[in-house]
Amino acid sequence: MDLTGYLKVGRLVGTHGIRGEVRVLSDTDFPEHRFALGNQLFLMHPQLVEPFPLTIQVCRPHKSALLIKFREWDNINQAEPYKGGLLVVKSDDLVPVNEDEGEYYFHQIIGCEVITTDGRHLGKVKEILPLPANDVWVVDDRESKKEILLPFIEEVVKEVNVEQKRITIQWMEGLGE
């Protein structure tokens, strides 16, 4: 699926009940905004030629996922074929963030080169794990070919330059283990 022009906000992982509700795993830092009642998302799926617009009618948390009822689907048969699909928004539909206070979009961080304060190039951020305490940035280590898990905390992340796609960190004992 070509995500050019779109930002991924969730994954449709299953159905729930017979009235068209679906289970969604959120891939956004702004679930309360993205999955608000009346918001429009687009469904991308291999069976679809174009992204399909869906409007949120009901959204509620359920275990580690969200249960969402879209206006366009009235029963399980309409939702079932699209399991595994991605929920996206247009890339210009951004929620305001304050970069001065360390707020960034996932797409701004993924792909950034990570450099230590002493000039060592570690690799690029390939994934972000949103955890309760803080996000963890997964970096592909060039030298060891392993992953480095960087906590997004003040003591480690010293500078983020999204224009130059560069992140400067303070190396701490235990990061590469």
UniProtKB/TrEMBL annotation:
Biological process according to GO: ribosomal small subunit biogenesis; rRNA processing
Chloroplast found in the keyword field: no
Localization terms from the record: Cytoplasm
Keywords assigned: Chaperone, Cytoplasm, Ribosome biogenesis, rRNA processing
Pfam families, per the entry: PRC_RimM (PF24986), RimM (PF01782)
Superkingdom in the source lineage: Bacteria
Function: An accessory protein needed during the final step in the assembly of 30S ribosomal subunit, possibly for assembly of the head region. Essential for efficient processing of 16S rRNA. May be needed both before and after RbfA during the maturation of 16S rRNA. It has affinity for free ribosomal 30S subunits but not for 70S ribosomes.
Domain notes: The PRC barrel domain binds ribosomal protein uS19.
Subunit details: Binds ribosomal protein uS19.
Family note: Belongs to the RimM family.
Record's protein name: Ribosome maturation factor RimM
Lineage, uppermost ranks: Bacteria, Bacillati, Bacillota, Bacilli, Bacillales
